[in-house]
Amino acid sequence: MNTEDSSLQTASQTVGPFFHNALIRDGDNILVNLQTRGEQLWLRGCVFDGEGQAIPDAMLEIWQADAAGIFNHESDPQHAQADPNFTGFGRSATDANGAYWFRTIKPGARETTSHINVHLFMRGLLIHLVTRIYFDDQTENSSDPVLNALEPGRQKSLISTREAAPDGTTYRFDIHMQGELETVFFDV
Amino acid sequence: MSKTIQTLDWRIQPAHLHPPYTSSIKRAPNHALVPLAHTLSELTGPVYGHSSLQELDNDLTRNAIKNGEPLGERMVVTGRVLDEYGRPVRNALLEVWQANAAGRYIHLRDQHPAPLDPNFNGAGRVLTDNDGAYSFTTIKPGAYPWRNHHNAWRPAHIHFSVFGRNFLERMVTQMFFPGDPLLPFDPIYNGIPDAAARARLISHFDLELTKPEWALGYRFDIVLAGSLCTPFERDGDDDEH
Fold first, then answer.
1. Dihedral class, residue A6 (left if φ above 0, else alpha if ψ from -120 to 50, else beta)
2. What tens digit of pLDDT does each residue of B16-26 get?
3. Quick check: B80 contacting A, CB < 8 Å?
4. What is the CA radius of gyration of chain A?
5. Which residues of B are marked as active site?
6. Is there a contact between B124 and B63 (Cβ–Cβ < 8 Å)?
7. pTM, full prediction
8. Residue B84: phi, psi to the nearest 5?
9. Minimal Cβ distance to A6: which of B39, B84, B168
10. How far is A162 from chain B (nearest CA, A)?
């Protein structure tokens, strides 16, 4: 992969179990304020290991477009129109029950089907994993090239399910590291 | 705009499953990773600027003082964050964390019977400058035992979390110290398949960097994966969004 003019990439190491003090701050999992455009929603789920045990020391980072599908980053040609009240980045550690949550909005569909990008870190992973969260009430999922390229039966591991919750719209997205329900992870 | 070049060089990067590191056994996915063509999702990412930081974030010897200075060998860690073309990565946010000089973290799950240091919390943040350079002051972390196998000890290390210019350039790693006798026995370090790639995680002692009668100097450069599959960026664009 590397050319003579290139530098060799640094190897990854695990985030380990002791990152909370440095990486997790109150509010990092709330991506919205009162001015943020779009319908606000809860994104909730749990992370499970190969024995179905909850993983209490994982960290998720999410990265997503705003309600109009625009990323708040200069590589998006439309970034000047990005919602100034939405960076698109959030971070959540899992708790003792393996649960995480974010307060965010559904990203708008522009070039791709609505989805949220995830970096997953934990003790036991020498290098992070990448996955995506789609939404079960988006009819475009059926024509999404990423979902359609997956082995039959694996698509559902990437599709969050809308649930009625007393505190507002909730999408549930569990992550399974192994087993029949193993989540699809990407080599980006 | 879609590309299928993969970011990570698996001759360098550790596999997810590395059985000597026992925590990987129930946590590494069994299926192969699925290649993903890049879209704006991967070619964008969170942006940081100086407003992201506070004054003492890059000085772990001062950012948690309660009644005195932290114990241990004071040191300065400096280096550059580069891309795979050797170009500096500006405004990269580095978050660092480490054990104290006795090998103890401030964490509920760290039960190692070594003392906490009331004046050290082991966490800091720093942003790279226009040359991709960063620097922070800390104390040298101690080695500590863990339960991976009988008589397992982690070599002294500092954790680094780095946000580059986009989603692809995200990286988490650990910096080690030259001559550490624990390195050959560490399954985390040795999870990296390539000896040269392992050696690049060992910082260099640098007398030029060492501050007389104050602090030892160590150098540690980081090369972020991802640039070989993303377009060149415009030079001189310092916008912070």
1. beta
2. 999 999 999 99
3. no
4. 17
5. 105, 144, 154, 157, 159
6. yes
7. 0.95
8. -75, -5
9. B84
10. 22
